[in-house]
Amino acid sequence: MGNAIGRAVDARDALAEIVRGEHVSDDPATLAGFTRDHSDELPIPPWFVVRPGDESQVRELVGWANATGTPLVPVSSGPPHFRGDTVPGRPGAVVVDLRRMKAIRRIDRRNKLAVIEPGVTYAQLQPALAAEGLRVVTPLRPRAGKSVIAALLEREPTLVPRYHYAFPEPLRNCGVVWGNGEATYTGEAGYGPPSLDAQWAAGMRQVDPKGPAQTDFVRLLSGAQGTLGIVTWASVKCTLLPETRKVVFVPAHRLEHLIGVCGRLQRLRLGEEVLLASGSLLASLMAPMREADRSELPPWTLVVGLAGRAMFPEECLAVQETDVREVVADLGREHGLEVADGLPGIDSDGMLEILTGVSAEPYWRLADKGDCREVFFNATLDKLPDLVAAALWLAEESGYPAADVGVYIQPQQQGVVHHCEFTLPFDPADADEAAAVRAFHTTAVERLAPAGAYFSRPYGPWANPVYARDGGSTAMLRTIKGVFDPNNVLNPGKLCFR
Amino acid sequence: MGFTPEVYKLFEDIVGPENVSDDPAVLDSYAFEVLADLVRPEQSHYMPRPVAVALPGTTEEVQALVRVCNVHRIKVKPLSTGWYHFAAPQSDEHDTLQLDMRRMDRILEIDETNMVAVIEPYVIAAQLQAEVMKLGLNINVTGAGASCSILASACAYAGQGPMAYWMGGNAENLLALEWVTPTGDVVRTGSLGSGAGWFAAEGPGPSVRGVCRGTFGSRGGMGVYTKCAIKLCHRPGTTEWNVHGTTPAYRLPVDDLFRVYTLAVPSWDAWADLYYKIYDNEIGYIFHRQFNLAGANLAPAFWLMYNDHTKTLGDVEWMAQDPAVKELTEEMRISFQFIMAGRSTGDIELQDRVLDALLQQVGGWKVERFCEDDMAEFTNMYLQRLGHKHINYVWAGGYVGTWMQIGTPDWVKNYIPIASAGLERDAADGLLVQCGGDAMMGSGSGFPGGGVTGLEQFVSYDANDLESTRAAVRHMEDAVKDAASHGLPPGKEGLYLELSKTDEQVHAELAAANQPAIFRFQRKIKDAIDPNDIGDRLYATLPPEG
Known about the structure:
The complex is a heterodimer.
Chain A: H1 2-19, E1 24-25, H2 28-32, E2 48-50, H3 55-68, E3 72-75, E4 94-97, E5 104-108, E6 113-116, H4 122-130, E7 134-135, H5 148-153, E8 171-178, E9 183-185, H6 196-201, H7 217-221, E10 229-237, E11 239-240, E12 244-252, H8 256-267, E13 274-278, H9 279-286, H10 291-296, E14 300-308, H11 313-332, E15 342-343, E16 346-347, H12 348-356, H13 364-367, E17 371-379, H14 384-398, E18 406-412, E19 417-426, H15 431-448, H16 463-468, H17 471-484
Parallel strand pairs in A: 2-4, 3-4
Antiparallel strand pairs in A: 1-2, 5-6, 6-10, 7-11, 8-9, 8-10, 12-14, 13-14, 13-18, 15-16, 17-19, 18-19
Helix pairs in contact in A: 1-3, 8-11, 14-15
Chain B: H1 5-15, E1 20-21, H2 24-31, E2 52-54, H3 59-72, E3 75-79, E4 96-100, E5 107-111, E6 116-119, H4 125-133, E7 137-138, H5 150-156, H6 164-167, H7 170-173, E8 174-180, E9 186-188, E10 224-231, E11 233-234, E12 244-246, E13 249-251, E14 258-264, H8 268-281, E15 286-289, H9 299-306, H10 316-321, H11 323-331, E16 335-341, H12 345-362, E17 365-366, H13 368-371, H14 373-385, E18 398-403, H15 409-426, E19 440-443, E20 456-461, H16 466-485, H17 492-497, H18 503-511, H19 517-529
Parallel strand pairs in B: 2-4, 3-4
Antiparallel strand pairs in B: 1-2, 5-6, 6-10, 7-11, 8-9, 8-10, 12-13, 14-16, 14-17, 15-16, 15-19, 18-20, 19-20
Helix pairs in contact in B: 1-3, 8-12, 8-15, 15-16
C-alpha cells in the first residue's frame, strides 16, 4: 500500500512538473468525468487527469509514460462522450485532457485554411472564421464542446459531400507526438522545418495532406482513437462563407424513392449540405416540436442546402435550385417526389440553423430521453434501403420501436461512401428500454456486416467482431502499432490493440 | 542465397515456363529505361538488369513469387506500364526479380451507381476512360498520360494531372486496395478486408495505406499492389466522341456543356491571383498549363505547326519569326489551358460569366487564336484524353522534368523566375534545347478543389548525345543548387538524382532532412513489413539501426 501511495506521489510530482502544478488532478469529481461515458464500456477511473498547455508538455508526458509504463488516454472534446474511446481501457491510466490547447494559430483567407489546436471547438472556430469570410464544414449539429480536430480524426461525417474529396477531409496536416515520443508533422508540413512559425515565414502553408515521402500519416491517425499519436495542431481546409443560403426538402414515403435523386445530386456535385433523414431524426434535431407537426413529418426526407458565394451568389443559388428541381422532376416523377420549401414545423431558416450551428444544451441526441446509443457504418447508396430495413428490423427484434429510431444518412467522398447512422434515445431509468437499446447496439455488427455494412470505426464492443472479419488488416495494424507505440502506452485496450 | 537455376525452376512452377524468362536480351529490354542515362554510370541507357522477369496472372501467383524471393533473398520489383527509371531494378549489387504485371489487365468491375471501378495493374488510363465514358463518367488521367497504369498512379506513384483539380488526384481517388506485402501476405484495405466491397479506403480504425501511399507511393519498393478500386466522377455532355482532324492533331468538338479556353495574364502575380479566384469560385473541369511544355518562346509556333498537316518540325524556327506568331508568343507568354464543364446549360453559362469577370479583375484575357474552333477542339482532345505523351520527346528525343515543388500559387510564383533563369543559363551553350527559359507546365491544382500547384520545367536534350545528356545532368544539379540558394527544397530533379547516389549518400541526405524522424519511422516500418529487405530503396529510409 505504502508503495502504491509512494508511486502515486511520485507520479503526481512528475506530472505536476511537466504540466505546471495546477493542471494535474486526482480529484474524485474530475476523475469521475472520465470514468464512464454514454457507452457500455466498463467504467474505469483514471489515475490522474492532466492538462498540458503545449506540444513540449505533450512530448514530456509521452516520454514519462514510456519510462513508467503508464497508459495515456488523449481527450480533446468536452463531455458528453459517447463511444468508450475516452474511457480508460486499463486501470492506472492518465487522461491527457487537451482542452487547454485551444489556440487558433492562424486563419489564412487566401488559402482558405485554419491552423488550430486540439482544444478548439466548432463553437469557437466558426465565429472566428466568419470574421474572415470563411467557415469549416461541420458534422451534423455538433455539441458545443466538440473538438474540431477530434471530430475529423475520428472521421465524423461532414455535411457537404461535394467538398468531401476523400477522408479525412477537411483535415489536412497535423503535428503529432507519436506513442514512442517522437514528434513529426504530417503531409506537406512534414517536408519543412518542425516549426509552424518557420514554415509560415518561408511561405509554406499546410495544404496538401499527403506525405511526407511514402507515408500518409494523417490517414494513419484517422480512426485511431488516440492509439497511435497525440495531435498537437492541425490545418483544416475551409470554404468561403456563403453570401446567400436556402434549404429545400424532398419528402418521401420510402427511402428507396429518394436513392436515385440523392445519387444524382452527388454525381453532379449539386447542393451544399445533402443528407437523408428519417422523420424521427428530424424531430430530434428540431426539438422541441409541436406534436401535431412531429406526427406530420414525412417518413423520409432528402435535405438539400443551396448556397451562393464569391461572384454572382444570387445567380449561383438560383441555378443550383433550378438544377435540383430538374433532377427531382426527372428522377422523382415515378414516385411523385416534389421539392418542398418546408416541412411541418420546419422551414428553410430553421433547418439552416440546424445545419450551420452547434447544438444547444442539452446535446440534441440526449434531449429526448436523457441517454442514447448510436450504431453507424459505411455503405454504398444502393445497399442502404436493405441495410436500413435490416437495422430497423433488428431494433424491433431487440424490443425497441423502429419508429423511434432516428436514421441519418450522410453521403461522403462525393457520393461514393455513405455514412448510415441509427440513433436510439432511451430513458436510462427504464431498464427494459435500456436493455433493448444495448441488445441492438451489441448485435449490430454480427447482424448487419454480413449484409454489406462496413463498420469502419469500430468502437467498444464492435472491435472484436469487426477485426475478426479482417485478419489481414488486423495483423498489419498490430505491426504498425508496434512501430509507433511500441510500449502500448496510448489508449491501450481499444481497437485491435488489446 | 540469391538467384540460381533452381530458383528459376520455382518461378516456372508458379507462373508456367511461358511466363518467365532469364534471356539476357529480354532482360535488357526491362533494364532499358527512360531517364536511365541521367543517373547511370557513363550515361548508360540501362538500369540494373534483373536476374529474371516473371509475368504473374493472379494475386496468388504474385504471392507465391514473393514468398520464393523471401526465402532466397531476391529483391522484387513490380512493373505495370512503367514511366521512368523508377520502374526498373535499382541495385547492381542485389539480384532482382522483375514482375511484369501485364497479364493482370482486367477491368474487374465498373459500378456506375456508386461511381467505382475495380482494376488490375495493367489497365491503362485510356482503356478505363473509354469504358467509363460510355456511362457518362470519367477518371483522372495522370500527367504520365493515357497509356499508363491507373493502379500504379493510384497506389505507387504521384497521381496528379490536368484533371486532379476537379476529379481528384489518384491518391485521393484510391479506394480499397489489394496489397501483397513484401513477406507475401495479402492485405485488403478498407471495406474490402471486411467483405463489404471495394468502395471505402479507410479502416477499420486507422488507415493501413497510411504507411505506403504518401506524396509518392512506395514506387515498387514495398510489395505489390494487385487490384484496386478507383473513384469515378461525372462527365457531362455526349458519350459519343466524334473525333476528327488529321493525325497527330486530332480534334474533339466542344460539347454545348463545355468551354475550352487558353487564358493568359500579364504577370505571375496576376497568374497566382487568377488561380486563387478560380479556386474560390469553383469553376472549371480541366485546369492545366500544358502547351508551355514546348517553351514560352516556341510554344505558339510549335502548336500551330502541329495542327497544320502541311508543316513539319523543321518549320517551327521560321514560323516563330513570323510577326503574327511573335505577337501571339508575347500574348500567351504566361498562359494556361482551362476547360469548364457544366452540369446544365445554366451552370455553364454562369461559369462563363464568372470567368469573364475574373479575367477582368486580374487584367487577363482569352488567347483568341487558341480559342478558335480548330485550336479549341485540339485542346479539348489533348486534355480530355492526355494521349500525346510523345510530345515530351519531340524537340530532341530526351526530356527531363525539373523543379515542380508543390505549394500554393503564391509560393510557386516565386520560383518560376529562378527556374526560368536557370534553364536559360544552362541552355546557353546549345547542349539543351533553347526554347525560352520558361518551359514550365503543370496542374492547376494537384489536389481536388484547388489549393496546391507546382510547375515542372520541361528540359529537352538529346538522349543519344553524350554531351547533351551530361548537360542535362548538370542542369539537374544546378536546379538543386538554385533552389537551395533561395531556401527551396529540390524539385523533381532531386528525386531523379537520388538514383545516381550511393546508399550512404542517400542516407546522409535523409538524415539531414528537416524532419529526419519521418525516415526513422519509414525504416522501422520497412523493418517490420519487409524483414528480408526484398523491396528496394525507393521506399526511403535511414540505415538500419546499429
